[in-house]
Amino acid sequence: MYGTRPVYIKSGSMEPALPVGSLCLVDTKAERSTLRPGDIIVFSAGGMDIAHRIMEETKEGFRTRGDAND
Fold this sequence. Notes:
By secondary structure, the protein is mostly beta strands. It has no helices and five strands. The strands form two sheets. It has a three-stranded antiparallel sheet with strand order 3-4-5, with no helix packed on it. The chain has a two-stranded antiparallel ribbon with strand order 1-2. Strand 3 (40-45) and strand 4 (48-57) form a beta hairpin.
């Protein structure tokens, strides 16, 4: 799986798109310039992998949110 890594979904923040218990393959070679609002990304925070949807791009990076979060 060169260029990909598995990520196990442990919380319901991305339901129903990514239900708890899902195993996702993440493209580790995705270029930032190809990412757009609506795409799902995985990032690390506090030693945990977090899968969220890009809501908007800012000068500093991306603003993200889980689909199930207000």
